[in-house]
Amino acid sequence: MSIDESTAARVAKLARIKVEPEALPELAQEFNTILGFIEQLGEVDIEGVEPMTSVTPQRLKRREDVVADGEQQEAILKNAPDAREGFFAVPKVVE
């Protein structure tokens, strides 16, 4: 796949990146280089390779999955401009 200048301009617009017209050829070339690297990755033989979370084998820390209220209600409501009966109080917006 090859990226031309018009495609590079469209990608820049979608990404909300301002690119001057004279910089479009270089941007298109960079996109093509990136796509070339991706194609190279597709050629790697990964048959029998287990997925990894890190380059060094390690076990992720786990904790018991328990439903709790966090026991921080007072500390959280202390930052609220208006709190009543243990909840945030907000202005009524629907009649």
Layout of helices and strands, plus pairs?
Layout: H1 5-14, H2 24-42, H3 73-77, E1 83-84, E2 87-88
Antiparallel strand pairs: 1-2
Biggest sheet architecture: 2 strands, antiparallel
CATH class division of the domain at 5-42? Mainly Alpha
Describe the strand arrangement of the main beta sheet, using strand numbers.
1-2
Summing up helix and strand content along with how strands pair, one would put the structural category as mainly alpha
H/E element order: HHHEE
Characterize the overall form.
Answer: flat
Helix content: 25-40%
* CATH architecture descriptor name of the domain at 5-42: Orthogonal Bundle
CATH topology of the domain at 5-42: Histone, subunit A
Tally the beta strands: 2
Give the C-alpha Rg.
26 Å
Number of helical stretches of at least 4 residues: 3
Structural features, described:
The protein is mainly alpha-helical and about 100 residues long. The protein has a domain at about 5-40: Histone, subunit A (Orthogonal Bundle), CATH 1.10.20. The chain contains three helices and two strands; from the N terminus they run H-H-H-E-E. The radius of gyration is 26 Å and the shape is flat. The termini are far apart. About 0% of the residues are buried.
